[in-house]
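ok here's N-acetyl-gamma-glutamyl-phosphate reductase:
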Amino acid sequence: MASPLIFIDGDQGTTGLQIQQRLSNRSDLRLMTLSPEHRKDPQHRAEMINACDIAILCLPDQAARDAVMSIENPAVRVIDASSAHRTDPDWTYGFAQMSPQQAKQIATARRVSNPGCYPTGAIGLLRPLLEAGLLPRDYPVNIHAVSGYSGKGRVGVQEHEGEYASQALAYQVYGLGLAHKHVPEIQQQSGLTQRPMFVPAYGAFRQGIVLTIPLQLRLLAPGVNAVQLHACLMQHYRDTEHVQVMSMQEARALTYLDPQALNGTDSLRLVVCENDEAGQVLLAAVFDNLGKGAAGAAVQNLDLMIAGV
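and the structure:
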């Protein structure tokens, strides 16, 4: 039986390039990409996508939708790394550790939407607590996250590594209209009934993310505390790969969180910090926006889909 034919569409972007590098030395796959002269040729793209077993789309949202619309071969399976299909009920959400059933669903899915980088951290923290009833589904969630500039794609890399890198901002908060495209994804996939507030930022480092969610214990059910929240996360992720929950003892010893601590890995580290006297808890996630937040997740999903056939 021939090894699966994988078409990477958009292999010149930050995510696509990482995926291609990760897969290039694998003997169990055959890779296809568009040549430079055909990258803007819809007909050639359609021919390639209909000839593959699994297509990995690393394209802007509308281009990803167009690519999917061009599929006529019912055998073609898709992993979409854009945000075009992340809230579409006909697509399987590609966060394998999100629920006990998710990996199996991804393994047999025809259409898989790769999670966004920020949503990976937010959903990873929120969903287990919401499902356990420790966090009300209508809790007024506030999310703050700082990503490396590669999260902005080639534009961000050029700003910080190109000719005018000396003029790049050291830190910039954006999404000030509170309408970031990741918000519906976070709300739907975590299970919140109310829209969370999400404030993202870029720092002057290439990759890595720290995402934090503050909680007021007085707004939770009586008796719910940081230890229970931590135990819930530990239980949810006890048998999963790539997600690690820091012990409470280690968390209490922390004086800072380094967004680059897990760079070059596909791991997601979850942390629960507390001020028991003040009745406040800080949930935090640390991971590589190009690892677990993008290319790493896509490769994990690809492996599940190949194994599930």
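+1. The domain at 5-115+294-308 is CATH 3.40.50.720 (Rossmann fold).
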